[in-house]
Write a structure and sequence with these properties.
The longest helix has 4 residues. The strands form 4 sheets. The chain has an 8-stranded antiparallel sheet with strand order 3-5-12-9-19-22-15-13, with no helix packed on it. Strands 4-8-7-6-11-10 form a 6-stranded mixed sheet, with no helix packed on it. A 6-stranded mixed sheet has the order 14-18-17-16-21-20, with no helix packed on it. The protein folds into 2 domains: 142 residues, no CATH class; 141 residues, no CATH class. A hairpin with a 5-residue loop joins strand 16 and strand 17. The protein is 1% helix and 47% strand. The N terminus is likely disordered. By secondary structure, the protein is mainly beta.
Length: 337
Amino acid sequence: MLSRVFGLPLAAVLVAVAVAACGGSHKPKTTATHTTTTTTTHPRKPAPKFISEEVHGPGASGYASTISARPGNMVAFRTVVPASLKGTQTIKLSFAQGPSKSLSITASTPQHSSTATVTSASGSSLTLEHIHYSCELPPSPSFCPAKHITTTSKQVQLQFSTTHAAGITVVGVVGPVTLPTPKSLTPGTAVVPAYKIAELLKVFPGGKATAATKSVAPTTSVTAKPGDFVEMVTRVSSKLHGARQPVTITIDQGPGSTITISASAKGGTASTATIKSKSGSPIELVLPRYTCNLPPLPTFCPPSKTAAASHPHRYMLTFMAAPGTAAPAVLVQVQAG
């Protein structure tokens, strides 16, 4: 997902949940007369105790409870958990897929629910397609993975466990629209030798997908500078159609003038790729994230393991894959080391 999902813009993956501080108070107001002083204290406004669901779309400056959109527009839904709700919250999301002139997503807990709505800008019926969400690797707080995913012809439902620090962001495409969908094969059942892995990289200068970057194929070595984003694509291949195997991606964080990424199936030969500093000065990789698609799109999610190590500084992601099944793309940001 990661920089693009089936031709979608990189910006969709970088949508972040911004949680504003809630509540507040006023300082006492004092009025003096010749002989007396009167003090009026305003009561503290209670902090919200409910989640809120919001949506962001084309041309909008921020999130709102309702927006209008057209087929082909990308929309991002976020669930905000207020600081007044302590601990982990279990939240169920229900996406209406249409067709309808109004599409809604409802976030609910046992105590409360909140709904955001996308209405048709043209008056024609809309659908919600290619639903996906982006997950950060540890130690960043995350709402991933999704649990209890159910789909019907009219609705998608899934459940997350999250906190105020993480919130939830899910992205979709307003349809009806035709987008390229990768083919996914059903894995075999035979135990076969370790699959061949190819780890490839692609740079998005400043985090933007331009016409120039879209035409550039991923490669095993790239140069990057602070502010760029790098997409890491893992490809799995074999002449044999066997069962899924664990594939682990190891991302050195840096800092260094050259940073190495490796990937391999268990027991197989590792494939390495390198990111070199364009200026020669040390760089490091931060905010690694991968994308999960919801059915019926092919997905590798949830990964079987995600971890971060401090000595040396690196990120690790393990997933189950076979040739022809969905493989992850991991997006990282480059910053000065």
